[in-house]
Amino acid sequence: MAIYLFAYATGVLLLIFSGFYGYWSDLSIYSAIPAGAAALFVGIGVVGTRKRDDFSDIAGWRIEEAAEISEPEKPVVAPAVLDIKSLDLGMLVVGGPGAGKSMMAIAYQEFLSQYRPDSGMAYFEGKGDFDIYRDRVAAVGHPDYFFSSELEHSDTINVMASPTETIIDTFSRVFVDSTNGYYEASQKKAIRATVPLIKSLGEPVILPDLWMLLTDSQAARDVIRKAKEIGVDPDVVATCEQYFQEDEEDRLNKIDGLLNKLHPFVSGPISRKINAYEPTLNISDAVSAGKTIYFHLPLSDTSLAVATMITEQFGVVARNRQLYELDGRKAYPLMFDDWGAFFYSNFGPITARCRSAKMPINFFFQSKAQTDAVLTGGIFTSEILDNIGGVWSMRINGWDTAKWLAQQFGTYETQEVSFRAGSDDQQMMTVEKERVRTDWLRDLNAGEAYGMIFATAEGGLMVNKRYQLRFPLPGKHYDAPTYWPEVAVGVSNDDAGGLHLWRDYRDADQVALRKREAVKSVLDDAGSDLADGDDEVLL
């Protein structure tokens, strides 16, 4: 800037000098020399000091093969730097099969691992292909945690580790049978009556504990008695007690749909991975420590339910970061690859909360129809666009999705010359054109994209930039694995502290023992002894 001011001042002085010189020399031909020099210096100074947007110091992801198309008729072919401030707001990436979404997602993770080596990220992968895991490890390294809904070797979580209200909301969404309004209300009532009680006992609880509480009357009586003994909120105890006073056969009939949906997650193959009293993966701790997590969740009914419960836990982490982590938050990006079928009604609010907590959500999916299908009154797609910093369209197969994406880039005005028939008269017209045509999005090669993202100019001004570019392929900085990871086995539930209703009440002998212990405890308090074999006495 200083050199431009100097040029401007020099030009002004030369202009003054040229005036005197021209007067003194009687406007000789040589007087034009200082006048020309003055004009040159003044011009340099004006151009150099005029107000303009300076994007030269943007920090972010550098893309070598790019052209800025904010003015489509004057594209600027030069490397693009995707502003980290906008990347921290999240991205929406849409592309058909084979368009290069997963490779772009891995390349982005590679950039983040180099730009912020001490910050973590979570990658939700919905295809389940080994090739994606292999390429991700080769580019970024092995993740700190690996959770799979299908593979035998997996880190473990506890889906009941969230706050009570979050569990109630999540389970009501995932496990309640909504095909009949009457039974739906009864099932939600069961969840709301029981979850607060077992979450108030001060011990780790898991889904099998909830199952046993709902299905075993002796377990319910013992838990209520224990809650009273340790001073659980009387309202919480009374609500649960009132619920179990209903006729048992009628009560179980009303929640049959709930129990059917719960059963695969209580005793099926997935149970060990999501019901750990001492999980190897604590999502809140992993985010705080800046760890990387790879979620291998090939689409199925089971993985859909598990993904919803995991996403809700990230929503809890985001809320806690908003409320209690007021300074020094490190970015923790979440990437949902091939995630179109996993969207659900609460995803929009979680997206907004995560963005505010510096946990930007990045979506990679195939079609606008996948977001339109989410049951939020048709506003989910708009919610996504309103809460992200960039939109990228890779090759699109479907016309409707391509047309929708092309509309996101808007239009521009240009001048065209027309001639009247039979004359040489010319007419200048202003014409409005699409900045990106629909058919262009269907002709892209793998890895190529049209996109728009905010860029921060000097002084903090944010401008929406449009680009046509080719995302780089992921690098190969680490040895590529030849098989899925071996994950160390954590503490067995039998060796961990917890409520243990499943262990203590799942067979007849254990139930009889618990009955005798419960009755003996009551009679001991009254100063009596329980006669041997008096198994029929019930509380």
Which key features would you list for this structure?
two-stranded antiparallel ribbon, 539 residues, 22 helices, 46% helix, Rossmann fold, alpha/beta, 15 strands, elongated, 4 domains, disordered C terminus
Account of the protein in words:
The chain is α/β, with parallel strands linked by helices. The chain has four domains: 2-49; 65-157 and 279-408 and 442-470, P-loop containing nucleotide triphosphate hydrolases (Rossmann fold, 3-Layer(aba) Sandwich); 164-270, no CATH class; 511-539, no CATH class. It has 22 helices and 15 strands. The strands form three sheets. The protein has an eleven-stranded mixed sheet with strand order 3-2-15-14-11-5-10-9-6-8-7. A two-stranded antiparallel sheet has the order 1-4. The longest helix is centred in the middle third of the chain and has 24 residues, at 301-324.
